[in-house]
Specification:
This protein is α/β, with parallel strands linked by helices. It has 2 domains: about 325 residues, Amidase signature (AS) domain (Amidase signature (AS) enzymes), CATH 3.90.1300.10; about 70 residues, no CATH class. The protein is about 40% helix and about 15% strand. It has 16 helices and 11 strands. Strands 1-3-2-4-6-5-10-11-9-7-8 form an 11-stranded mixed beta sheet, with helices on both faces. The longest helix is centred in the last third of the chain and has 22 residues. It is globular and about 65 Å long. It starts with 7 loop residues before the first helix and ends in a 14-residue tail after the last helix. The mean pLDDT is about 95. The protein binds glutamine. The site of glutamine (GLN) has 13 residues, from loops.
Length: about 500
């Protein structure tokens, strides 16, 4: 059905001209979720009744001439955002029975803007992963197929969100990004995703993984759709002391900016060995596209890039080990009884957490323990500030940076599974921007030799998402990426 292919921009126009009602749109999406979710496992929980109610309310508001900005747009919400009275699992067994009594700030803003929530999207357990394989609710899969037909991962941790948006069973989605979890799955599924500046969106009500890195952001099928969503999701929140008290710019207008004269840096250190030749080629194509629109290209150096992954895999587990200490069988979710309190804690945590989460808790506890704190955690924090300094120095001369999003296209379910370090390499291009807290966006730009989507990443200065949107929109126009995943609503397989 055509309407399932619409962008949010097209949908809002169709709703405003009464070409379609929010309820019709919701019904089409609910049906599409029903037929495709058994294949994709993109949703952990579906909420069709809630979606119908919200769609009806959007139609009533529109008829009264009082439709808020997003009235009637069907979205998927990553199951890391607390939804009031809707089960919220974080992809973990330990939160299996958890029904939050409150709504996260970001999703609350989307609801106030009239969004229709189709359900809670699958993710790696506590957002720890790059493949969605660590979800306790089974892996979400990628709607794209490789020439050999094997099942591919959608990337992670926001894999369910990316899969749903690419397969046209949701128009947009929320994601969270701690080290790449919006950008990498967006790249793997051929959609757009932006991690805004740390502090741009409130973290209140988002289940914490690594608090100094976690950021919410939108995922959608166009740069402008992401701009619309991010504008609604952003803003200061007194309930999150790290949210920034800054006015939210008009991101949508930034998408139409002329980029002539903008300065684009190409970081030398992102030319890693073993990168697929198609990715190298696509990066070059991106450079040419921007030049044609009048941007100036400069080589820049971010000398501490090579420490990005080691620093991330010390800092993120350290913070995770502390954040996840709250799951003790007393206050939240699941409990396994024991002879005494300690045994109850141990059994609850042994049964409730999956292998990857346990690995991170152990690494994190180790690097924070007496005798190792200085050698690992403190050292990592120092190197983190050098990484930040690299970006600051680069941004003294250029407005944005252009890099690939990932070192490879989507891989098969089961690949890279035996060695966690190989899995961690996925994040090599996304982690530095997370450590520095700067905004970064992935735009689909082409296909690899096996027909899979590849993304380019645009990184900007702190709180300068506007330049990121301007450059990303220029890349989107030039790349004219129209390829579609094989598995999608409305397509006959
Ligand atoms: N893949 C990274 C990790 O496993 C990033 C995850 C994320 O951004 N949430 O930590």
């Amino acid at each position: 059905m055509k309407m399932l292919d619409w962008t949010i921009v097209e949908t809002l126009a169709a709703l405003d001209s009464a070409k379609v009602s929010a309820l019709e749109l919701a019904e089409a999406h609910i049906a599409a979720v029903g037929s495709l979710n058994p294949h994709l496992n993109a949703f952990i929980t579906i909420t069709p009744e809630i979606a119908r109610k919200q769609a009806h309310a959007a139609d009533v508001a529109r008829r009264a001439g009082a439709a808020p900005a997003l009235a009637g747009v069907p979205l998927a919400i990553k199951d890391l955002f607390c939804s009031e009275n809707v089960r919220t699992t974080a992809g973990s067994k330990i939160l299996g029975p958890f029904i939050p009594p409150y709504e996260s700030t970001v999703t609350g803003k989307l609801l106030s803007a009239g969004a229709v929530v189709l359900g809670k999207a699958n993710l790696d357990e506590f957002a720890m992963g790059s493949s969605n394989i660590t979800s306790a609710y089974g892996p979400a899969t990628n709607p794209w197929k490789r020439d050999d037909g094997v099942k591919l991962v959608p990337g992670g941790s926001s894999g369910g969100s990316a899969s749903a948006v690419a397969a046209r069973i949701a128009m947009g989605a929320t994601g969270t990004d701690t080290g790449g979890s919006i950008r990498q799955p967006a790249s793997f599924c051929g959609i757009v995703g932006i991690k805004p500046t740390y502090g741009r969106c409130s973290r209140f009500g988002i289940i914490a993984f690594a608090s100094s890195l976690d950021q919410a952001g939108p995922m959608a099928r166009s740069v402008e759709d992401c701009a619309i969503l991010l504008e609604i999701m952003s803003g200061f929140d007194p309930k999150d002391s790290t949210s920034a008290d800054r006015t939210v710019p008009n991101f949508r207008a930034a998408c139409g900016r002329n980029i002539a004269g903008m300065r684009v840096g190409i970081p030398l250190e992102y030319r890693v060995s073993g990168m697929a030749p198609e990715i190298e080629k696509l990066w070059q194509a991106g450079i040419e596209w921007l030049k044609q629109e009048g941007a100036e290209i400069f080589d820049v150096s971010l000398p501490h890039t090579k420490y990005g992954l080691p620093v991330y895999y010390i800092v993120a587990p350290a913070e995770a080990s502390s954040n996840l200490a709250r799951y003790d069988g007393v206050r939240f979710g699941a409990r396994v009884e024991g002879e005494d309190l300690i045994e109850m804690y141990e059994r609850t945590r042994a049964a409730g957490f999956g292998a990857e989460v346990k690995r991170r808790i152990m690494i994190g506890t180790y690097v924070l323990s007496e005798g190792y704190y200085d050698a690992y955690y403190l050292k990592a924090q120092k190197v983190r500030s050098l990484i930040l300094r690299d970006f600051r120095e680069a941004f003294a001369n250029v407005d944005v940076l252009l890099t690939p999003t990932t070192p490879s296209a989507a891989f098969a379910v089961g690949e890279k599974m035996d060695d966690p370090v190989t899995m961690y390499l996925n994040d090599v291009f996304t982690v530095p921007a997370s450590l520095a807290g700067v905004p970064a966006m992935s735009v689909p730009a082409g296909l690899d030799a096996r027909g899979l989507p590849l993304g380019l990443q645009v990184i900007g200065r702190h709180f300068d998402e506007e330049s990121v949107f301007a450059i990303a929109a220029a890349l989107e126009r030039a790349a004219d990426f129209r390829s579609l995943p094989q598995l999608r609503a409305g397509a006959t397989p």
